[in-house]
Write a structure and sequence with these properties.
The complex is a heterodimer of chains A (about 325) and B (about 260). Chain A contains 13 helices and 2 strands; from the N terminus they run αααααββαααααααα. Chain A has helices spanning about 5-30, 35-55, 65-80, 85-110, 115-135, 170-195, 195-205, 210-215, 220-245, 255-265, 275-290, 295-310, 315-320; strands spanning about 155, 160. Helices cover about 40% and strands about 25% of the residues of chain B. The chains are: A mainly alpha (about 325), B alpha/beta (about 260).
């Protein structure tokens, strides 16, 4: 368990100051409150992408995170609207439910490697969408609408989280909530990758046979990792549903699953913080190209191809010239 | 006398092809036993069945009287029977030291969650892994390459790394897959000495599969000879050298290959 260096502590402090103080300050000064929605989305998508990144870390290409985000969104929406549960309690439950589903699905499909696993995972999003259309509890194509905003949480009269419905600016509240969740996620990911589980994942990514020869129960670790990944997908999806106050079978589609994967590629598969940067760049990149009108998709795709050709290890490999990353 | 490892009537069929037919032999504690045979004799198949990387068709392998065939590889490793691979099977982007630390998985006392939260046991484990890795690196004389990434190592060092990874699990029996393949005389002698040292100093019983005859004659206490999937001889190096069936099996190209 490595201790953080002074530089790392300093960059962490700068990062936290930036997202919690500088960004809201800038938005207040410039009046561009639409940015809140964008940045909140980036934070939430990066949580789900972090999960995908973790499955890459055991050598599995996961194009199914949309499925778990959708599951998370529905579970939270159903618990809040039908059972009257507090959103903050439904959030971990949504994650756990997604993780449970991942265990059931993961046991058979995680034996597959390479393109075979990727293909199966690609189907998952469609399967969940179709299931949501068919089940009565998810209300079919009409989806679940008018989900109340998250309520307050207080312990012994001390308000920990205010009721979002009474707030003047719920967008700022969502932004803070998403940032807190993102920081927690990536802190946990950093810790995990540098702990024994992370070492075992790396050993499996590099050679599963050798890993099993030294006594690692590889199928066990694969399922653990896939369930953590899906837990994060479920959390991201649940908060998204709460912001939109609605969930539809089309809330997360195959394209979203592909984007989660692209975020990881773009940021760098060898870097824990890769998915965060990847999500930011990909999300804003798409918006910035809006001016190009009908050429938007063409320019976007070409840029992605060029980036992957010249920076196969992701954007973060730029930051550390000559220095070895966690991988490759 | 009870044997450490017993191979009992092991047969392996791939469809209509019989790769191993009714093989039986024993490995005694603290012995170096080699399985040799011409190409296609079924050595590798037998090796994989002993380490449970392949199921047997019939027959079983016992370790201290307990069946270890037809299990999962990690379960067999847990019991103390660990195999090595040929040089391409390594953790490419880990250094020698990192590989050895990861390979001590079986020595871990803390749970995975314990490592995540950094419990006291986990900290002790991490310290002990580092200590053990340093000891092992010293023992194997790999200090100079300890922090070298595996993908940058030359072939000879990769073999030693493979053995180091196997030894890091603290095995009772180490199964070596062609440890001398593709090595010149000097490298082979170094490896022979290393394998002996592993047996003598660490008390590890060694079973190896190999076709470098001089090295096998030099290193083995006993030898098992396979030909066309059948076991044709078993004995000390001298007995094997004088065994007519063995000479016949190797006839033609054989004489210099066996080293007699």
């Amino acid at each position: 368990m490595p201790k953080l260096s002074i530089i790392q502590w300093a960059s962490l402090a700068v990062f936290l100051l930036a997202i919690f103080i500088a960004v809201p300050g800038f938005i207040a000064a410039s009046g561009r409150s639409d940015l809140y929605y964008t940045l909140t989305s980036v934070a939430l998508l990066s949580i789900a992408s972090a999960g995908v990144w973790l499955t890459f870390y055991i050598g599995r290409i996961n194009i199914g995170q949309g499925a778990f985000a959708l599951i998370g969104a529905y579970v939270s929406a159903i618990l809040v609207t039908k059972a009257g549960m507090s959103f903050w309690l439904s959030l971990p439950l949504a994650g756990l439910f997604a993780a449970g589903v991942a265990i059931v699905i993961g046991v058979p499909i995680l034996r597959l490697r390479g393109v075979y696993f990727a293909m199966i995972s690609l189907v998952l999003t469609q399967v969940v969408t179709l299931t949501a259309l068919a089940l009565p509890i998810t209300n079919g194509a009409k989806g679940i609408t008018s989900i109340p905003l998250p309520g307050g949480v207080s312990i012994l009269g001390l308000t920990l989280i205010p009721d979002f419905a009474t707030l003047e600016n719920p967008r700022l509240a969502f932004y803070y909530a998403a940032c807190v969740l993102m920081v927690l996620t990536f802190a946990a990911m950093y810790r995990l990758v540098n702990s024994r589980l992370g070492h075992l994942c790396r050993s499996m990514q590099q050679n599963e046979e050798l890993a099993s020869s030294i006594g690692v129960n590889i199928s066990h670790i694969r399922v653990i990792v896939f369930s953590i990944s899906s837990f994060l997908g479920g959390i991201g999806g649940a908060v998204f549903g709460s912001i939109a106050q609605s969930v539809y079978p089309s809330s997360f589609q195959v394209a979203d699953s592909v984007n989660f994967m692209l975020n990881c590629f773009l940021g760098g598969l060898g870097y824990v913080f890769g998915p965060m940067l990847g999500t930011l760049v990909l999300y804003f990149g798409w918006d910035l190209l809006f001016e190009l009108g009908r050429f938007q998709l063409l320019a976007y795709s070409s840029l992605l191809i060029i980036l992957m050709l010249f920076l196969p290890n992701g954007l973060l490999s730029l930051r550390l010239p000559g220095k070895k990353g966690a991988d490759k | 006398m009870s044997h450490l490892l017993e191979v009992r009537h092991v047969t392996k069929k791939f469809g209509g092809l019989t790769a191993n037919s009714d093989i039986s032999f024993n490995v005694n504690e603290n012995e170096i036993l080699s399985v040799i045979g011409p190409n296609g004799a079924g050595k590798s198949t037998l090796f994989k069945m002993i380490s449970s990387f392949l199921p047997t068709t019939t027959g079983e392998v016992l370790f201290r009287g307990e069946r270890i065939s037809n299990l999962k590889p990690h379960v067999v490793a847990r019991k103390g029977v660990v195999r090595t691979f040929q040089e391409t099977t390594i953790f490419k982007s880990m250094t020698v030291r990192e590989s050895i630390i990861v390979a001590q998985h079986l020595r871990a006392r803390a749970s995975l969650a314990g490592y995540f939260w950094g419990t006291k046991t986990a900290h002790e484990d991490v310290d002990s892994f580092g200590q053990y890795a340093d000891d092992l690196i010293e023992f194997l004389g790999m200090a100079e390459i300890a922090n070298e990434q595996a993908s940058n190592l030359p072939q000879g060092n990769l073999r030693a790394l493979g053995i180091a990874i196997g030894l890091a699990t603290d095995p009772k029996v180490l199964l070596l897959d062609e440890p001398f393949a593709g090595m010149n005389h000097d490298e082979t002698m170094k490896m022979v000495n290393l394998v002996r040292k592993v047996r003598d100093d660490r008390g590890v019983t060694v079973l190896l599969v190999e076709h470098d005859m001089p090295a096998v004659m030099n290193i083995s206490d006993r030898i098992v000879v396979l030909n066309f999937g059948e076991m044709i001889a078993e004995g000390t190096p001298t007995e094997i050298q004088n065994n007519e069936k063995v000479i016949e099996a190797y006839l033609g190209s054989a004489d210099d290959e066996i080293g007699i």
